[in-house]
Write a structure and sequence with these properties.
Strand order of the largest sheet: 2-5-8-9-10-11-12-13
Structural class: alpha/beta
Oligomer: single chain
Number of helices: 11
Distance between the termini: 26 Å
Helix content: 10-25%
Strand content: 25-35%
Number of strands: 27
Radius of gyration: 23 Å
Bound molecules: alpha-L-arabinofuranose
Largest sheet: 8 strands, parallel, barrel
Length: 522
């Protein structure tokens, strides 16, 4: 009976999306999994759920900062609707001010009376005037308001160790030195806590076009003037590789591995994989681009594993963390928007991409200590889209929200075999999944059903676990490109999950096609 109803739901999805999306052969698939609830797979750092906010398009201005005189409700210039939404996500850390922007940023431009701050040209992002109304104090206020921590990216490409040292002192010195007193004069008495400091960004590209040997030496030089102290326990993160640039990680680890706490990795998901012509559209795509998107995003598993293997060679104790501090989907910009602002719509596909990546990160908790998705608001794979006084929470936002119980949870080994789905010359596993025991004691299973057509009945052997209730949340929609946009009724939002049953040691989960499901076992 259950299966029958699942099949008819799948057929309905096919009917709704046929023609434009060419989904064929909708079916109910079966798969098996086994959960080892008594084994400890390591702690899933909460920092894996980090955010990235750059001075780019509407990422800061309009997205976070509207100014104290705005009609949009705000606290000291920071919009209150955005703060409330981000508080609900338990954002552990925000990376700022860039991105490429960071390697042209002079932190002194963003302190002192706002009406006296210089206006600069944002050379990387649409030549927009950078008014510096949002600087160090405003960023740290934002962090405090959302209850998060800071990851400051310092300028290596066009700056000096002196500038970095002075910014670190300005922010973290408890003393009576001139920089600490300047901070006080600007309204902040106590030193700030900064969790992470990025020493450069994409130093192989927009951060200076350096060769790995050159940057490794630059990193060593900068970090020599980065002083940890009682009030600065921030970790030093080296600018790492782009995607499969393994030589970068190898050289960095060999030359400077002993002087860093972490090294970054950037990997973006483009449906076509083509940076130079069309990357693929955010909406209106067909099954082929749905599948190619997942085929590319799942490469994250291989890329992390290969960088890890290199790091293991130089750091077998796994002291140095891998920080995936830029990841997410990157599509063609929306027609009619400034190409330099990287504004794209956000659909159900993005939510499933996010969950698929979370499941990958959870399998690498001994090395992946932090990630930050690009970017929080109005840019690339955003959590929130704003339009003047309106905001909308995206499908990606909801994927992050559903996975909150995984923050600082204990990973539990979950083995499974997934059926495959093929289209347009690409084949993907129909789903991926991960499990953890949350800090609240409950067991959670997160599933990304990447199959655009087929529902999956997943049988999980939960031997050793006493389950009395199966609950959770599910996020899905009729259309692959169902989007949430400001001022329009949301097309994608999570609802209570009612597809789970427990009988003895056997947990059965009905997982709708193209969905994110987080199951809670009580
Ligand atoms: O996230 C947008 C840009 O992508 C960042 O500024 C840069 O680091 C990367 O190339």
């Amino acid at each position: 009976m259950k299966i029958k109803s699942l099949v008819s739901t799948a057929c309905l999805a096919m009917a709704l999306t046929s023609g434009a999306f060419q989904i064929a052969n909708a079916d109910t698939l079966r798969a098996d999994a086994a959960l080892k609830a008594d084994e400890n797979g390591g702690t899933i750092s909460r920092y894996i759920y980090g955010q990235f906010s750059e001075h780019l398009g509407g990422g800061i201005y309009d997205g976070i900062w509207v100014g104290p005189d705005s009609k949009i409700p705000n606290v000291r210039g920071i919009r209150s609707d955005v703060v409330a939404a981000l508080k609900d996500l338990h954002v552990p850390v925000v990376r700022w001010p860039g991105g490429c922007f960071a390697d042209e940023y002079d932190w002194r431009d963003g302190i002192g009376p706002r009406d006296q701050r210089p206006v600069r040209k944002n050379n990387w992002w649409g030549d927009a005037p950078e008014t510096n109304q949002f600087g160090t104090h405003e960023f740290m206020d934002f962090i405090d308001q959302i209850g998060s921590e800071a990851y400051i990216s310092v300028n290596v490409g066009s700056s000096s160790p002196k500038d970095m040292r002075e910014w670190v002192e300005y922010m973290t010195s408890p003393g009576t030195d001139t920089l600490a007193n300047e901070r006080r004069k600007n309204g902040r008495d106590a030193p700030w806590k900064v969790a992470f400091w990025g020493i450069g960004n994409e130093s192989w590209g927009c951060g200076g076009k350096m060769r790995p040997e050159y940057y490794a030496d630059e990193y060593r030089r900068f970090q020599a003037f980065f002083h940890k102290s009682d009030t600065n326990q921030g970790l030093k993160i080296a600018s790492g590789a782009n995607a499969e640039h393994y030589e970068w990680t190898d050289t960095l680890m060999k030359v400077a591995g002993g002087d860093m706490d972490g090294i970054s990795l950037h990997y973006y998901t483009l449906p076509t994989g083509d940076w130079n012509s069309s990357k693929g559209a955010a909406t209106g795509f067909g099954t082929d681009q749905w599948v190619s998107t997942f085929s590319r995003t799942l490469k994250m598993e291989e890329i992390i594993s290969k960088h890890e293997a290199i790091m293991d060679k130089y750091d077998p104790q796994k002291r140095v963390g891998l920080f995936v501090d830029e990841w997410g989907t990157w599509y063609d910009v929306e027609k009619g928007t400034n190409p330099g602002f990287l504004y794209q719509k956000n659909t159900l596909r993005d939510a499933v991409v996010a969950a698929a990546n979370f499941n990958i990160f959870h399998h690498h908790v001994d090395r992946v200590k932090m990630t930050s998705i690009a970017q929080t608001i109005n840019v690339l794979q955003a959590m929130i889209l704003t339009d003047k006084d309106k905001i909308e929470l995206t499908p990606t936002y909801y994927a992050f929200k559903m996975y909150v119980p995984f923050q600082d949870a204990t990973a539990l080994p979950l083995t499974f075999t997934a059926p495959q789905y093929s289209a347009g010359g690409n084949t993907i596993p129909a789903f991926n999944a991960s499990a953890a025991r949350g800090k609240d004691g409950h067991v959670y299973i997160g599933i990304a059903n990447m199959d655009p057509a087929d529902n999956i009945v997943l049988s999980v052997d939960v031997s050793g676990l006493k389950v009395t209730k199966v609950g959770g949340q599910v996020l899905t929609a009729d259309k692959m490109d169902a989007a949430n946009l400001p001022g329009v009724k949301a097309a994608v939002a999570p609802v209570d999950y009612k597809g789970g049953k427990i009988k003895g040691n056997q947990l059965t989960l009905d997982i709708p096609s193209k969905s994110v499901v987080v199951v809670q076992l009580n």
